[in-house]
């Protein structure tokens, strides 16, 4: 299996264009900044704003998007994604995978890597880490991302053989994520999962030294890191829920990096102390409709919502100019890279706003306009914004809609138990259709281990399946079973043309069921203080401040 087969084929020009606009230079010419063999340190502490508390430091159990990036500083993976997303490079793996056959691969492991406690990283740690996530008894939320692995076997002190359940188009890309983070076997077993979640030990370029809940997470440079000690002395994530507060602290140099909302972009761009970087984030942002129970069981009621909304107003209400319309629940960049029939899909599945048609469909579904809609949202401008715009559209046709803002934990619980009519939703899917169609829309009951008995949905397709099963809707079940076959088959072949045909058919099944209001794909603006040197954020950045390509430091 070649690298071209196992990685996405997104156009490099997107990355070049986005970085050229902000004066990037030298990113691909080796490490930027100090020599990684120079362990003198003294580069300051890079302080980063984040809006959410960390729930667990164990990457095997993490569900928080921001920590999926931060965890790369604490833990390593077999591969690392290149800054432009075009492929992977070996990281803990000592060279490319050796293909024995299409479902068997051998990885040599570097023999110069140590964990933060000084223990050497070996093949046993790699095999243990992958198998632990793969074991349904451990209830890892990352299980579905590595279920292509049947078993990871330590076949030598520094050799791991990967036995796959099936050929997987995105194997190396997945092995570059924190879904496949490597942890120390002996320590993880001795501590147990709960203790390890609060006192993690990895092999990354930084190690955890302090965690003040709701305030900060502090990391310190690991001087025995196998790529050399980072120039930075440390990293500090500061919990700052309000974007305006984060920007004030960014502008005065209290922190060095923060996201910039649409309302603050102009101010950030005019501030001499701040460099702004606008990047595609390759995600899906929208609202899930409860298809299991409530007013939207009937597909005609869900279709009515599509006529109720103006997609451009939803986008503007959420993020202003910091996003683009999604197409068939994928970012425009993915649709373009795959040359999907975007114009046809827009015309067929995204009707113009028509409140009269919405009323007709509500009536056809057995509803009039005196029912109530419970809209659940996470905190944050983008989430509240889309929920508020939707609330207004319901009220325009005489339907009472209540927006209920909840905590992260309550939001996850609501997804699991279906206690909502419509819920805000975001998904980081990457630059391949698999990240949206398999990871968001598959039938979870067909995964190894199925779903926990207490979980009724957790993804839009989950509510569709459970609703069809509970109502005995055989025709819908037949369509959904075919859909599930397609999204699973698409990830089990490396032939791009076959994958293309699978996804086109899957779109034609999913879209007329209207399980989701696909609002937009975000474009994030991050602000970096000018005190930071040798640092270039990217759409695909992982372990950005110190990796194979660049190294950051603070110039006070």
UniProtKB/TrEMBL annotation:
CDD domains reported in the protein's UniProt record: PBP2_NikA_DppA_OppA_like (cd00995)
Location of the Solute-binding protein family domain: 89-443
GO biological process: peptide transport
This protein's GO CC annotations: ATP-binding cassette (ABC) transporter complex; periplasmic space
Gene3D superfamilies: Dipeptide-binding Protein, Domain 3, Periplasmic binding protein-like II
Keywords per UniProt: Signal, Transport
Pfam annotation, one family: SBP_bac_5
An example Gene Ontology molecular-function term: peptide transmembrane transporter activity
Similarity comment: family membership: Belongs to the bacterial solute-binding protein 5 family.
Stated name of the protein: Family 5 extracellular solute-binding protein
